[in-house]
Amino acid sequence: MTTITDLSEISALSETTLLRFATAGSVDDGKSTLVGRLLHDSKSVLTDQLEAVEHASRNRGQDAPDLALLTDGLRAEREQGITIDVAYRYFATPRRRFILADTPGHVQYTRNMVTGASTAELTVILVDARNGVVEQTRRHAAIAALLRVPHVVLAVNKMDLVAYEEEVFAAIAEEFTAYATELGVPEVTAIPISALAGDNVVEPSAHMDWYGGPTVLEHLETVPVSHDLAHCHARLPVQYVIRPQSAEHPDYRGYAGQIAAGTFRVGERVTVLPSGRTTTISGIDLLGTPVDAAWTTQSVTLLLTDDIDVSRGDLIVPSKDAPAITQDVEATVCHVADQPLAVGHRVLLKHGTRTVKAIVKDIPSRLTLADLSLHPHPGQLVANDIGRVKIRTAEPLPVDSYADSRRTGSFILIDPSDGTTLTAGMVGESFAAPEPVKDAADEDGWDF
């Protein structure tokens, strides 16, 4: 059996050189061009990919290759010159590996920015130096704050079109930083760039000697990314119960899933939620090998001492560190569907691997992005709205605050009639936390 002696060793093993980051910004701010420039100048583009881009660019009458085509893969994206879907790309430098999500800028596709940034540790928000901070910039900053993205980069793009003037950059950086600070964004790094010309993307700019900070790639390579597993709330959403019932394993019963947070150890006392039954971990299988401990993002199978009822959708947690179980969920949400979300709507709430019926009991407020004020009791949220909701579920759910756990503090609301994803939610308080509102009685339908 593989043995790990202490939590400091676990923390050392968990340190990663992988950075997940997302790009965001308004339409035509140059997100795809920036990503293409990063890939091209960091030598992360295969020869045949570059040749295909050069060929497509020539067919469009362009002398130089359009690096945005490295990420805009859909035909509609290339025809319109905009990003529609989230484009994921992997690349690496000698110092770090990267998974990037190039997200759309059009307000219609803000929902895709939520998807791309939900697992990001850093978000690059682009601003056109000619236009400054616009409403979509504020929306993306608000989403980054809601999703608790720990690092935000403000990339002031197209500096070549404003004669590389320091005053233009300084004014935009000051306005955005003040807004982001009010949202509670913990860290903002502002970088003046020209994605088209390559200024301050991978190589320092020869046109902005007044700027002494890092390039975009240098910041991506050096920003601290750490996972202190010793102090996480350990959580394992059960995805599958493994029972071979074979001659070799007649009594084997394991509970498989990906660890959402924290560390599990053999011999640890655990509780299965929502039933509340307790037992002890008798074994941990990782890729078919028994281990003494396993931690965040590893897919494992837990073996339990007692033969208790555990099924898909249950949550295994340390008995000494169990989350609260509730049927009343208060959260900040970003509505992503075209149809509105209204008070009284019957929905399905998916939390981890568990899906339950629920009712939208109240929508206490909607956020106004321009000044971060709250519009009280709007009655409904429409596409791309950010607001507070109060939901009653048919069954108890073990939920964490999103501030404590991005994985087990998040959920989605689903239309039960057709399976459409309606809303992405973050449990607990946020920068837009309203005063509590008393529920109105709901006498018919799904009244839990």
Mean pLDDT: 83
User: What share of residues is helical?
Assistant: 10-25%
**Rg for CA atoms:** 24 Å
What is the global morphology? globular
Distance between the termini: 47 Å
Q: How many helices?
A: 8
**Relative strand content:** 25-35%
Question: Which stretches are poorly predicted, pLDDT < 50 over at least 5 residues?
Answer: 1-16, 73-84, 432-448
Question: How many β-strands, per DSSP?
Answer: 25
What can be said about the biggest beta sheet? 8 strands, antiparallel
How would you describe this structure to a colleague?
- Strands 7, 8, 9, 11, 12, 13, 15 and 16 form an eight-stranded antiparallel beta sheet that branches. A six-stranded mixed beta sheet has the order 2-3-1-4-5-6, sandwiched between helices. Strands 17-23-20-19-24-25 form a six-stranded antiparallel barrel.
- 19% of the residues lie in helices and 33% in strands.
- It has eight helices and 25 strands.
- Helix 6 (135-146) crosses helix 7.
- With 448 residues, the protein is of the alpha+beta class.
Main attributes of the structure:
single chain, 448 residues, alpha+beta, 8-stranded antiparallel beta sheet, 6-stranded mixed beta sheet, 8 helices, 25 strands, 33% strand, globular, disordered C terminus
Q: How are the SSEs placed, and which strands pair?
A:
Blueprint: H1 7-14, E1 18-25, H2 31-41, H3 47-59, H4 75-80, E2 87-92, E3 97-102, H5 110-117, E4 122-128, H6 135-146, E5 151-157, H7 166-183, E6 188-192, H8 216-222, E7 236-237, E8 240-242, E9 254-258, E10 263-265, E11 269-273, E12 277-286, E13 289-291, E14 293-295, E15 299-304, E16 315-318, E17 324-335, E18 341-342, E19 346-351, E20 354-368, E21 373-376, E22 380-381, E23 386-399, E24 410-414, E25 421-427
Parallel strand pairs: 1-3, 1-4, 4-5, 5-6
Antiparallel strand pairs: 2-3, 7-16, 8-9, 9-15, 10-14, 11-12, 11-16, 12-13, 12-15, 17-23, 17-25, 18-22, 19-20, 19-24, 20-21, 20-23, 24-25
Helix pairs in contact: 6-7
